[in-house]
Each structure stands twice: as C-alpha cells, then as structure tokens.
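Sample pair:
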Amino acid sequence: MDDTELVQRDVDIDAAIADLARRYRAAGNLGVQVLNVLNWPAEGVMDRLPENARARLETATVRGLEAAMSAASGSRSLVKDQKPWVNTATTTMVGVVGGLGGLTTALAELPLTVTMLMRSVQAVAAEHGFDPDEEQTRKDALLVFAAAGPMVQGKTPDLTFLSSRVTLTGVNVYVGIGLIAPRLAVVLGRKLAAQTIPVIGAATAAATNYSYSGYYHEMAQVVFGLRRLADQTGTPFDALVELLAARLDD
C-alpha cells in the first residue's frame, strides 16, 4: 500500500465534505438574517445605490483588493492572527464608523473593510497549513471573494465561483484581481447601498459588516478546507467540489 492510499484511508472524505457543506449553508444564512432585519428584498438592494457610485465601484474594488492583499499580508508580521470573533467585532466597528456619514464615509471605509476581510481569509489559510504569502494561496484567497456574497438569497447552492480556480491558474495575482473584481463589486455595492442613510446607516453598516465578516470567514473555510482535503487525499479539487455540490443538494 502506497503513502497516498494510507492518507486516503485515514481521512474521512464524507465527514469532511459534510462539515464543509454545513459551513457553506451557515455562510448563506448570515446574509438572509441581515436582509430580514432590514426588511429588504435581495434584488432591490442595488437600486438604492446612486448611479454615479455604481459606475465607480469596480475601479474602487480593484484598488481596494490590491491594497488589501498587500496591507493584510504586511500586517500579519506585526499583529498575530486573531480569533474569528475578534476579526468580526473589529470589522463591525469599522462599519459603524463608515455608516455614520452615509455614502461618503461608507466609500472611505470600504478599503479598510476589504483589508480586514482579506486578513481574516489569510488567517484561515494559515489555520489550514498554507502560507498566505505563497502565490497559489493568494489566488485561493481571491477565490473566496468570487463567491456571491452574503446578501443573496438563492434556493440553489451556487458553487460556480470555485471554477474560477482554473481561470486563475497561470495568471499573476494582480491579473487575478482584475478577473475577480467585477463580481465582488456587485457584492460590495449591496453593502454600500445598505449604508446610504446617515446615522441609521451606522446600525445598518454594523449589521452588514458583521454579516460579511462571518460570510467570508466561512467561505474561506470551504475553499481552504477543499484545498487541504485535496492535498491530504490526492483527490482532484474539482472532484471534491462535485461531492460538495451533491451534499448541498441533499
């Protein structure tokens, strides 16, 4: 029996996939809870964002991701990774400040929020044994942000974002940012729209940042959990995604 067979015997793939499916569902439920509190339908949130803000959102997202990738990575050498609840609390407080002045302060707060989210994703990568500064890990961190986002209600699980892993292969991280940014811009647009009302927007921003922090933490657990499982068992990443999809359909 070779080493691969020994590893496959020791790792319960079904149990691991079941745990990742639980995390995926938990991530989606966070956004549903926020939408219920706001009493907003998911499809109407973006309509609350001014047209000029929507036009600038993708460019701002690219710049925010570029800054977040380097700032989050650099901060890890100065401040050790925190427990998830600490990251969530910090991101929530950042949202409160950003929501106090409506759209103006929300736009200013956005890069900091993205950096905090990226830092949380990198911490999950490290938890699973991956070096956050390694090229493939940085691409997988981007993959987390290709997910649909927390403020989307869908009856059918959407794992198509995981296919972006193939798209990111062979390109550098900054090209990858350009590929992921359009999808993330839509997700961040929902967040900004939820913060457009001054003062009241502070409470809304706290709720949305809480949701986003929890969502991306759980999605990072899914992405890096799949990657570690692939490494442990020798099972192709895509095959594990299919197993996860089947589990979510149950």
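Residues 5 and 233 are 8 Å apart (CA to CA).
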